């Protein structure tokens, strides 16, 4: 019984650990398409992504977010970022973000690891 409980706990924690183990250097390379709209330290077409991990969606002063993103109630934790980077329009219908998403989960984990370094 004790081992089945331990196994269940490990199975629950593995998805979270997979995100935390992304490769930030690979994520920096995978972030290249994002640079068309996003930067660190200033907003452009897209909002400034400095400190995005852990930040409430649509909360950066001075950027004009879509109404659906403002109403989403999302906090950009690893799970929400993963869903967003997989398919932004599926995560928040009506978003202004035109990027279709990354089909590769490993690449998403890497981008999240990279974004986590930008505080």
Characterise this structure:
With 119 residues, the chain is mostly helical. It has one domain (2-116): Cytochrome c-like domain (Cytochrome Bc1 Complex, Chain D, domain 2, Orthogonal Bundle). Helix content is 47%, strand content 0%. The longest helix has 19 residues, at 2-20.
Order of helices and strands: HHHHHH
Number of strands: 0
Helix proportion: 40-55%
Uncertain runs with pLDDT below 50, 5 residues or more?
3-19
Structural class: mainly alpha
CATH superfamily: Cytochrome c-like domain
What percentage of amino acids are in beta strands? under 5%
What are the SSEs and their pairings?
Blueprint: H1 2-20, H2 24-30, H3 67-71, H4 78-86, H5 88-91, H6 105-116
Helix pairs in contact: 2-6, 4-6
How would you summarize what this structure contains?
The protein is mostly helical and about 120 residues long. Helices cover about 45% and strands about 0% of the residues.
Q: Key features?
A:
mainly alpha; 119 residues; Cytochrome Bc1 Complex, Chain D, domain 2
